[in-house]
Amino acid sequence: MSDRVPRVGALPSGPRDAITDVSGVTVGHCTLAEGAVQTGVTVIRPHAGDLYHDRVPAAAAVLNGFGKSIGLMQLEELGVIETPIALTNTFGVPAVAAAQIRAALAVNPGIGRELPTVNPLVFECNDGHLNDMARMVVAEAHYRQAHDAADVAVPEGAVGAGRGMSSFGVKGGIGTASRRVEAGGRMVTVGTLVLANFGRPAQLRICGRALGPVLAERLEDPGTVAKPEKGSIILIAGTDAPLDARQLRRLALRAGAGLARTGSVFGHGSGDIALAFSTAYTLPQDPGTPMPAVAMLHDAHLDPLFEAVADGIEQAILNALWRAETVTGRNGHRRRALAEMLPDWQALAPGAMS
């Protein structure tokens, strides 16, 4: 399969072109791939320490709320992350949340007793076309495996939580990217990661070119082509720029610009949720520890970050599509790789390669 992914925009990438170009961020996967079980867990760690004690600022933007995530209410209220960010399938959310709570308790046994409770943070997409979700195979051990595997190298495509996901009638999954920009007199990194499980075939756009009609014709599957939008996508952005929760919500909202460029219209049955966090500082859980005095980036300097997150999200989606292999799962259902369906995409959309 060709790994020549279309290049989005003119902004430079970090050395890995991944969310892990943001210093301290790591990502791990646990992939379950056997017969009708095609699913997994992906974990994003904003830093290697104890997130319960040293929380990071964050905010979310719900573009369309057809989702079953956990932890968003407290995140919106307090503007902090206090567990790693976990991604899985819809029915795997309770087990993964329980695993996050147990992991926090193992390090801080006073949680829920003399210490405040912990807010697990789990996002989901429905991988039921390829994966038999009703088996509910995702367990706490799978979260621990993904957590412990976290590294700066990030496999993409049909891995981790992305194993059973579909996009535009072909194989979706995990994609990541990064962009570097100057903002307020300093160079900052914006890293992105997506769990892509959205889009109707005819809607697909690649670097501004409408290739959906070609893809829909080649799929030769009227059922897939005609189905309404019932997918989802989780959009994650991390940055080393010093932003507060209000600014991070603005950054998360701009992830929708990158999503829209690929052809999404945030359909009625789609759960499209974006989260942004900053690693520039941490916020202590302990009320006896002074809050940090941080000079935030001025709002007037946010535009480069907005461009970076839009380009990075679009790039991460394309990376997910290009790097996912064909997968056969539940009841023989099959999702072909986009690279197999559009091997001649450059001839159809000349000039999109860097």
From TrEMBL:
CDD domains: DmpA. Gene3D superfamilies: L-amino peptidase D-ALA esterase/amidase (3.60.70.12). Pfam families: Peptidase_S58 (PF03576). SUPFAM superfamilies: DmpA/ArgJ-like. InterPro entries: ArgJ-like_dom_sf, Peptidase_S58_DmpA. Belongs to the peptidase S58 family. PANTHER family: BLR5678 PROTEIN, D-AMINOPEPTIDASE. This is D-aminopeptidase. It comes from Methylobacterium indicum.
